Amino acid sequence: MKNNIYNRLRIALICFTLLAGIFVVSCDKDDDNGGSVELYSFGPSPVLRGSDIHFIGQDLDLVTSVVLPDNIEVSNITVVSSSEITITVPQEAEPGLVTLKYKGGSITTKSRIGYTEPYSITSILPVETAVREGEEVTISGDYLNNIVKVVFQGNASVDSADFVSQSRKEIVVKVPKEAVSGKIIVEDIHENQLYSDLELSISQPTLTSFSPTLVKAGENVMISGANLDLVSEIIFSGDSSVVAKDFVSVSSTSIEIVSSAYIQDGPITLKAYSGVEVISSESVTTVIPSALTIAAVSRYRAGLEVLITGSDLDLTTSVQFTGGTAITDFTYNGTGITVVIPNDAMDGVVVLNTASGKSASTDAIVLVKPIAADVTPNPVDANNDITITGTDLDLVKSVTFGNDLTVDITPESSTSITVTVPMEATTGELILTMINGAVVNTSSVTVNSPDYCYIPVLPDSETEINSGKVFSIDVVNGGALTEVKVDGNTTSSFVEGTNMYVFIPSKASGKTELTLISATGSISYTISVIGVSSIETVIMNETHDLGSWANEDAGGAFRLYKPSFNGVKAGSILKFYFTVSGTPGRMQINDANWGQQAMLEFTDEAQTSYEMELTQGFLDQILNTSDGWSETAAAIQGQNLVISKVTVITFEASASETIWTGSQVMPGDWSGNIQLSADLFASANVGDVIHVKSSDVQTGAQGSFKNGSWTEIAAGTDYFDITGDFELTITADILTSLQSGGLIISGHDYTATEVSIRS
Q1: Can you list the domains of the chain with their CATH numbers?
Q2: Residue 53: CB partners within 8 Å, gap ≥ 6?
Q3: What is the pTM of this model?
Q4: Mean pLDDT for the stretch of residues 512-526
């Protein structure tokens, strides 16, 4: 159907345009056509004998021959497509109807074919000598007055309006610059074409030599040959080229150009306007920096400069040290290149790169390496500091101890490094690794392993340590343990084999100090404890512009009162919200008798708040000082601050109760679930949080909280996206549902490992 639509649209267009006499419409099928072959049109008509005629229709690829008057049968058919075929009209063909034969039938046109005057070409002059662009060619023959275009090989043509002269017997035309050697074609208004029997020879550029052959970027190159004014472009290896408009000079025998910085070794190609390319037999060799010498300005050390001298250094586009990346930030002063040795440089040559892709190398250099002259103390106890002294130690990025334990460092001095010996380190040679990856071996260090209890590997960030629960971890020398403290307070603990069990007090939260005490020593660690909840209470909610030490009557200074601090413990936070109206902003905090307790200064106008930890000493001072007439705890004054609010942030340890543990896979088809009975929530309260710990969470995973009737327990809990652990805060309605029907946890593409209630 698609082909039929296309063909009928095409014939409709043909029927419209063929009124000009180019094609003849033949839309009726012959009576003896019993198949699917159809002829819609043919043309051009009239047609020049010896040229092609086209037939348009359907299933024309089935046609086996075309019969022209008088009974001239043509079987040499060119099938363009199933809807178009062409034949060449024989010279003896006569006017009349045309018949298309195919297996099982034939179609005869309803319109007659006609012929144009038989224009001809008898000679071309000159034919024995080559002509060039702009020279005249004379075409002789008959009926040449019907010609509207002369076409040369190379897809170059001249319209009749540009003929030098034209008559019935002769056309004179100038050779276009795009023309190449070959037969000439003449074309009439109906696009009928006739080829000449003779071939025209058209001159093209020739290249005899160029100089210099050793070329430096930016130098002029002179090219010699013939017909060089026909060259449109000169192409060098590396796809660098110069087009005609950029030639310095050009004549028929020479071209002068400026070489590009990007030319590469190889032959030169001359490209003519005709598209003909001429390749030189000789090759260009590009100049590169040479006679290179390299010297350290002071010494070969990362961060210091080297000076490279030699010839043609102006060609350098980048400098590259062995092991390092290419550097474009260098200085060339006309005689030498100065460049800083990068931190990643290693021993070896220094390479100068050029735009041509070629490079030159200096002699190899040996870089300064750190020297460790002394290590103290030696012997040293594990977990104690050692100091390495020497020279160029700021080039070191890490120190490796015995037992292959590496400690990364950031040296603050070129003459010394202080580093803590790992607990598991053993006696052996220290290895210093430089920033560039090179290593330097130093003297051996004797490491005394501790005889007190210690933790060899601290918990990773994925390990949860909860307040109010027992925490277990591997220890070494557990039998030596006598006491464990959390944030300075003794807590219960015991050791079984290599495991130490420690109770984390309920009040512990956030960054917490864990201290292991043995008879022969002690060691402290910082661990992260989960379970902190905070409450922020507003104790002043008025705007006070402190101005320039404005007093209370002016709306500047103000008071905070003792009842606001009832029950507040040391470690709580006093938080001020403000705007810095000028710098510096200052805030003076005084007790009730205006005795200064703190002077704060703010220089960043973008700062909007400040948190001050309330120490026990500060609380004692402000709560036990009396002015004799008010409940003032603190008086605030200052300048360039507009204070809008003051709050107290207190912390409460949160308890956590695990109500389910296991490994419940939640597949992608929602077939997995955890059903928790109502009795598990008997002691839950509004505000508690149900926490689901998960693992193997896949992209696009979702969680779900449903009640005992398998409907969402609250709006938005039927399904929701998750990337890890997820939670549900218990409201009054949720608590009622939990305590009556329990909870169903489901979802897809993750594994649930624990469910807990955190208060």
Answers
A1: 38-116 (2.60.40.10), 120-200 (2.60.40.10), 206-286 (2.60.40.10), 290-365 (2.60.40.10), 371-448 (2.60.40.10), 469-530 (no CATH), 533-652 (2.60.120), 655-758 (2.60.120)
A2: 42, 43, 44, 45, 47, 86, 87, 88, 89, 113
A3: 0.50
A4: 91
